[in-house]
Known about the structure:
Blueprint: H1 3-6, E1 14-15, H2 19-28, E2 42-45, E3 51-61, E4 64-69, E5 72-76, H3 78-87, E6 90-96, E7 107-113, E8 118-125, H4 134-140, H5 153-165, E9 168-171, H6 174-187, E10 196-199, H7 200-207, H8 216-223, H9 232-248, E11 258-259, H10 262-277
Parallel strand pairs: 6-9, 9-10
Antiparallel strand pairs: 1-3, 2-3, 3-4, 4-5, 6-7, 7-8, 10-11
Amino acid sequence: MSDHFIVPPQGPWTRISEPQELLDYLKRYELTPETASAPRQLYHIDISGDVLPCKVVGYVSQWNTVIEVAGKLGCIDPRYLREMNSSARYCVFDVETPNAQNDRISAIGLVLFDGEKAIQTAYYLIDPEAPFDAYNSRLTGIDADAVKDAPTFPEVWAQVEDLMSGSILVAHNARFDLSVLYKTLQAYQITPPDFRYLCTLQLARTALPELGHYGLNDLCQYYQIELDHHRAGSDALACAQILGCLIASGMQVTRSVKQYKPEQEKKTARQKAASASK
């Protein structure tokens, strides 16, 4: 965390003690929707990219809000805090692949999610410029004929790069989807951004230890979410709804945000494979 947020406010400041006063203050600076009946959870993104829950506790002046982050006080311009929270958005995604190599994408579904609802959805059928395995086509319903007029991945990436690189990525079994995305970017000689991500599979295992099975279809059945499985658009929307259920249950999901490190993922996979063979 930068020194700006470690150092307490210098001089006197006014603490906000009443719930309604806090709600009115947050609405005034557009940190909570006008229609809200309770304060919205706010986040601070530190210099390392970690997303940390924070709360407004008072103010020094009109453009000097006092916030608490990880137990420490600091001052911030509320306009900057609003900007940070607009970037602390979730981009929930799911990819389908044409074959067992998992280094090309035949479809991608995207959901821009604000923690409560889907703000925007998108679905792209993609020409992977690679052969299709019969198994993958049966699973996803996508074959060579289906993508003959579809854009290639670089064309689609040009449209979704800002959204995906500027958001917290979320997927179910995120390591798989992220590895496919990463390898596809490399295959087209596109430099992968630094991805921050959440995995709803891992979150659900923590939140629902009694459930036992955590496949996307299992969680959709548990939460009564409609699902057309192995269809990227439906899978992404279902994943977003699962994330919403976990957040609504009180889970502080941002504490689980990680930086995607492909080399570390490969090392972990090798270690697991070695353990399994013993």
